[in-house]
């Protein structure tokens, strides 16, 4: 008995037809709408540092990039709370919570290495010749080798 896969469907059709995916899409669209409303009340500088995480039972949970922005938002909390409560979507808003979560930054690889001039490399080689400690001498020669392939 061979497995016969179901015919391929476009992703938009799957999102609309499959119930768990439809619920997830609706929740994502709702959070996106709430984010736009929140950004309309935030200072322009704070918009990229504050995101809606959840909205349940009158509590709005905001994810903030660092403690500095969380503190600034706490100072503005009364004004922000009143402005959001005036909107229909946040009609039963009672409190706002802040969670600090730094943005995910990919690890930097292959960073910019310092340039070693030819004269600096010659100076390192000359110094290495006068060193009796074999480990220190080898280390200086390795450093000097970084400039060999440069014109």
Features:
elongated; 3-stranded mixed sheet; 48% helix; 151 residues; single chain
The strand line-up of the biggest sheet is: 1-2-3
Average of pLDDT:
86
* Percentage of residues in helical conformation: 40-55%
Query: Which secondary-structure class do the elements indicate?
Result: alpha+beta
**Which overall shape is indicated by the principal axes computed on the Cα atoms?**
elongated
Q: What is the tally of helical segments?
A: 6
Organism: Pseudomonas putida NBRC 14164
Pfam families: DciA
InterPro entries: DciA-like
Protein name: RNA-binding protein
Please, could you describe this protein's structure?
- The protein is α+β, with helices and mostly antiparallel strands and 151 residues long.
- It is built from six helices and three strands, in the order H-H-E-E-H-H-E-H-H.
- It has helices spanning 11-17, 19-41, 67-75, 77-85, 118-129, 134-145; strands at 50-56, 59-64, 95-100.
- Strands 1-2-3 form a three-stranded mixed β-sheet.
- A hairpin with a 2-residue loop joins strand 1 and strand 2.
- Helix 1 crosses helix 2.
- It is elongated and about 80 Å long.
- It starts with 10 loop residues before the first helix and ends in a 6-residue tail after the last helix.
- The model has no long low-confidence stretch (mean pLDDT 86).
């Amino acid at each position: 008995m061979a497995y016969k896969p179901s015919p391929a469907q476009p992703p938009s059709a799957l999102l609309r037809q499959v119930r768990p995916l439809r619920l997830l899409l609706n929740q994502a669209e709702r959070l996106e709408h709430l984010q736009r409303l929140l950004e309309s009340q935030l200072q322009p500088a704070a918009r990229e540092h504050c995101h809606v995480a959840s909205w349940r039972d009158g509590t709005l949970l905001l994810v903030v990039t660092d403690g500095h922005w969380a503190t600034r938002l706490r100072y503005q909390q009364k004004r922000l709370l009143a402005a959001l409560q005036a909107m229909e979507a946040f009609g039963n808003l009672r409190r706002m919570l802040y969670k600090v979560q730094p943005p995910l930054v990919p690890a930097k690889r292959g960073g910019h290495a310092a340039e070693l001039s030819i004269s600096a490399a010659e100076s390192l080689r000359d110094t290495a010749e006068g060193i009796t400690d074999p480990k220190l001498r080898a280390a200086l020669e390795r450093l000097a080798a970084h400039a060999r392939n440069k014109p």
